[in-house]
Design brief:
The complex is a heterodimer of chains A (about 260) and B (about 450). Chain A is an alpha/beta fold and about 260 residues long. Helices cover about 35% and strands about 25% of the residues of chain A. Chain A has a six-stranded mixed sheet, with helices on both faces. In chain A, strand 7 (about 180-185), helix 6 and strand 8 form a beta-alpha-beta unit. Chain B folds into three domains: about 25-65, no CATH class; about 80-150; about 155-170 and about 230-435, MetI-like (MetI-like fold). Helix content of chain B is about 55%, strand content about 10%. Chain B is built from 14 helices and five strands. Chain B has a two-stranded antiparallel ribbon. Classes of the chains: A alpha/beta (about 260), B alpha+beta (about 450). The interface of A and B includes residues 73, 102, 103, 104 and 173 of A. The complex binds adenosine-5'-diphosphate (ADP) and magnesium ion.
């Protein structure tokens, strides 16, 4: 387990990040199995619009599986997941609706290598949202500016550094105008000097009021940006708290052990 | 880092100059050293290979080019117009006990009649013979002989050329296949050339409207073009028709079968597995016979179902089954993340396949698909089994023609050459693509 604590020398103003009463995601009594392997156990989680949640925990504890259930990349077998009041079932229409509202950023970027950076960004708006090409390109360029690489628009992903690719991946998700963003270890495949540029983009998103669930071991990021930190172990949510409390006063001994392991680096 | 702080002077760093590599590793000498004689074993192999080439290449080139007959319109053009004269020659024979003795032998001598330019080359050879008398070897003699060196009779191929190309397609109508195949070839080259505008549209044109236009051009019966029954189609044109129909049909069908094999729906999956595995485990000849004999059993009695069409359907499905397995390999080679990213963007199955997965998978698979196509092009020769007159069949018909008997070498050489040109260009193209895929994105 390696936790990095990248210095983020931007002032993060949490007071600007408004949390509304509106519920974005509601998970109740959710279980998931891979075959006979019980990977998620009785997950209950409510996320309000505008919350920034960091999920941490040992490898294999089910963090990825949990956030992948939220946009139905994985199917749960018991319990209920509501995203913007749409329940995730086998109903393909609901799945489509949810996927339009939820953006996802992967550890390995998963950009489309045969398309240019701009085409990566405009693909979904054009084909899913049926947007005219010119408009999609305008939006694509706007979000490439947000992630600060408009000059790379015509390159192919393979020509960019890892940090740049991850920022393109974020821009690609933003082009669909999602209300919720999921991040699955967005910086753990990156070299240290690139982690910062990605985290800065994520902070910018948080300041804009984006609802975010972020699996990461960047504890500096968690302290500055998250309003809630969730600790998972063995498929359960063991503990959740505000970052200050979570890091300074972990309640369960499993959390304490985990924190002592990752912070001792 | 400042040196003053420490009070010591660090030596100034000067990078070493770039040196050229040793002469023995570059240039012609380097190449020969590295590739032809890196050690004694490989050196010996090089010598053996060069010797083999020396023994094989000159006779073939002499036969096919230098001693060959090109002009004329009948077999006579290839007959050497010379006379062979026998001379009496006194030779020495060697007796079994080693003593010599004078014998009279004959020698063949080639004489060119006056005023005739010989289109023939001969070589003087010494042939050993024995003189026998009363059942026992009497003496060894050496006889001189002039031997005519035979060259290829390309006159034969020239005379039969039109049949090799067009089969029994009527003479006055042969411009039709020529035009169709010419345009098709140009369009394919255009489609495969990098950087040409609207390549996708040309590809779509080749895939859908072009085969229909081609069919009417071949078959006629419209726009004042007389109808030509497809029993008369033949030769290289038929070979091209069968292989290009099989290729254009097998590609989409193969993709569909591959996607079906990976489908979540069991019925579709089982059906596709059945088709793929069945057609892959049966030889093509069997498929052809089945298309001929078994297919009509499934049709209402009395329906006449075109022979060529049956063969085309059989061959297309056969190739599609192989294509499907290649495509499946390409699909599996794509990282799971590509599917997940497309899913997360809400693209849905068909758009994901069309925009993300297939463009990448097909790119990976092009070399494998091309070699499959090379295979089909050659396998079309099997259609003669069911009575279609492809290029090879036309050649075989020609070499058994009494007028041209004994010229099968020329016929098969030509046939092989045509196949080589087609297959070698496909193979080169696929190698070029492979290189491009390695360096590009
Ligand atoms: N597709 C799968 N099939 C079977 N087991 C899986 C699959 N994906 C993940 N797992 C298992 O589920 C557990 C949780 O995985 P994951 O959610 O990726 O953990 P984390 O992201 O916290 O490291 C692990 O033990 C992993 O081996
Ligand atoms: Mg994970």
């Amino acid at each position: 387990m390696s936790a990095t604590d990248t210095d983020i020398d931007v002032d993060v103003d949490q007071s600007r990040m408004k949390i509304s009463d509106e519920i974005a995601i509601q998970i109740t009594g959710m279980h998931k199995w891979y075959g006979s392997f019980h990977v998620l156990k009785d997950i209950n989680l409510t996320v309000n619009q505008g919350e920034r949640i960091v999920v941490c925990g040992p490898s294999g504890s089910g963090k990825s599986t949990l956030i992948r259930c939220i946009n139905r990349l994985e199917e749960h077998q018991q319990g209920q997941i509501l995203v913007d009041n749409v329940e995730l079932t086998n109903d393909l229409k609901n799945i489509d609706t949810v996927r339009r509202e939820v953006g996802m950023v992967f550890q390995h970027f998963n950009l489309f290598p045969h398309l240019t950076v701009l085409e990566n960004c405009t693909l979904a708006p054009i084909w899913v949202r049926k947007m005219p090409k010119a408009e999609a390109e305008e939006i694509g360029m706007r979000f490439l500016e947000t992630v600060r690489i408009p000059e790379q628009a015509d390159k192919f992903p393979g020509q960019l550094s890892g940090g740049q690719q991850q920022r393109v991946a974020i821009a690609r998700s933003l082009c669909m105008n999602p209300r919720i963003m999921l991040f699955d270890e967005p910086t753990s495949a990156l070299d240290p000097e690139m982690i910062k540029e990605v985290l800065e983009v994520m902070i910018h998103l948080a300041e804009e009021g984006m609802t975010m669930i972020c699996v990461t071991h960047e504890m500096g990021f968690a302290r500055k940006v998250a309003n809630r930190v969730i600790f998972m172990d063995a498929g359960e949510i063991v503990e959740q708290n505000e970052p200050e409390e979570f890091f300074n006063n972990p309640k369960s001994d499993r959390t304490q052990l985990f924190l002592s392991q990752i912070l001792s680096h | 880092m400042s040196t003053q702080d420490y009070g010591v002077t660090e030596p100034v760093f000067t990078p070493k100059p770039d040196l050229p590599p040793p002469a023995s590793t570059v240039g012609v000498i380097g190449w020969v050293r590295n590739n032809l004689v890196p050690d004694w074993f490989n050196g010996a192999m090089t010598v053996v290979a060069l010797l083999a080439l020396y023994m094989v290449i000159p006779p073939i080139v002499n036969w096919a080019l230098f001693d060959a007959h090109f002009v004329g319109d009948s077999r006579k053009a290839c007959k050497p117009n010379v006379q062979i004269v026998r001379d009496k020659v006194a030779t020495k024979g060697i007796m079994p006990d080693g003593t010599t003795l004078d014998v009279e032998t004959t020698a063949d001598r080639i004489v060119v009649p006056e005023g005739v330019i010989p289109n023939v080359r001969w070589e003087r050879k010494m042939v050993e013979g024995v003189v026998r008398a009363k059942g026992r070897e009497y003496a060894k003699v050496v006889v001189e002989k002039d031997v005519i060196i035979e060259g290829a009779c390309w006159v034969f191929v020239g005379v039969r050329f039109d049949q090799f190309i067009y089969g029994f397609y009527p003479k006055e109508e042969r411009w039709r296949p020529t035009v169709v195949i010419g345009i098709g070839l140009l369009l394919i080259i255009y489609m495969l050339t990098d950087g040409m505008p609207h390549r996708g549209r040309v590809a779509m044109f080749l895939l859908i409207p072009f085969p229909v236009i081609a069919f009417f051009m071949f078959s006629g019966g419209v726009l004042g073009m007389p109808h030509v029954d497809n029993a008369k189609w033949g030769g290289l044109v038929l070979t091209i028709i069968i292989s290009s129909v099989a290729i254009t049909g097998a590609l989409p069908l193969g993709v569909a079968l591959a996607l079906g094999r990976r489908s979540q729906m069991p019925i579709i999956r089982w059906f596709c597995v059945l088709v793929i595995e069945f057609f892959r485990s049966v030889p093509m000849i069997t498929i052809l016979f089945m298309a001929l004999v078994v297919l009509p059993l499934f049709l209402p009695p009395g329906t006449t179902f075109d022979q060529l069409l049956r063969v085309l359907i059989g061959v297309t499905i056969f190739i599609a089954a192989y294509t499907a397995e290649v495509v499946r390999g390409g699909l599996q080679a794509l990282p799971k993340g590509q599917y997940e990213a497309a899913d997360a963007l809400g693209l849905g199955y068909w758009k994901m396949m069309r925009l993300i997965i297939l463009p990448q998978a097909l790119r990976i698979m092009i070399p494998a698909i091309v070699s499959l196509f090379i295979g089909i092009f050659k396998d079309t020769t099997l259609v003669q089994i069911v009575g279609l007159n492809d290029l090879l069949t036309m050649v075989q018909l020609a070499v058994t023609d009494a007028q041209w008997i004994g010229l099968s070498k020329e016929g098969y050489f030509f046939c092989g050459f045509v196949f080589f040109v087609f297959c070698f260009s496909m193979s080169r193209y696929s190698m070029y693509l492979e290189r491009k895929l390695h360096t590009g994105h």
